[in-house]
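quick one, 227 residues, struct below
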Amino acid sequence: MELTVIIPVYNEINTIEEILKRVRNTGLADEIIIVDDDSQDGTRAFLKELDGQEPFRVILHEKNQGKGAAVVTGINHASKDLILIQDADLEYDPRDYEKILQPIQEGIADVVYGSRFLGAPRRSTMFWHMIANKLLTLLTNILYNNILTDMETGYKVFRRQVVEGITIHAKRFDFEPEFTAKILKRKVRVFEVPITFNPRDYDEGKKIKIQDAFQAVWTLIKYRFVD
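---
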């Protein structure tokens, strides 16, 4: 099975070159789709120079729409059997690709979540952000009768056929709860594996805000009852 890696990007000039190097060095990405969401810090110019160099494909949004919109654009352009979502910062380590791909390659999963809360090494920081993540995951499990440990993880890999016929409306960080809600309602096989995590602080460029947590709650409740 061949792999498409989707990288949504917005104002990541300090990390974009390094994350692309790390993804390519895994030797596992057959296609790397970078979707720039109208960056204003030089990222866009860097990506324009990269476009067309295998295995990279660069797609430019003409206006800022949000991470979710960038991910959906990437999914719509993906051509390989498997799709993996990779943030453009350095919070998630591509060296974890092998273990998050393994359950699908072994035929025991259709979707794999890389969990930050299953005991792998991680940087110790941002207590309240962790609490918000755990509460949102708990709400997910209550509403959808599941036992996830990390619904909000940015590391998700899935068979392309899993999302065929699913419409994702999310534009911002509500992508995670909407995607999760819709795959859980489809009863696909979901596995979690532990991943390393090196979170950055807000002064380092972290973008998710407290209002996104409230949006996630509404998204989880809404899609429990509607498609």
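Residues 127-144 form the longest helix (18 residues).
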